[in-house]
Amino acid sequence: MYVVGTAGHVDHGKSTLVEALTGIDPDRLAEEKERGMTIDLGFAWLRLPGGNEVSIVDVPGHERFVNNMLAGVGGIDLALLVVAADESVMPQTREHLAILDLLQIGRGVVAITKKDLVDEDWLELVEADVEDVLQGTVLEGAPIVAVSATTGDGLPDLVSTIEDLLEKAPPKRDLGRPRLPIDRSFTISGFGTVVTGTLIDGKL
Question: N or C of the chain: less Cβ packing under 10 Å?
Answer without folding.
Answer: C
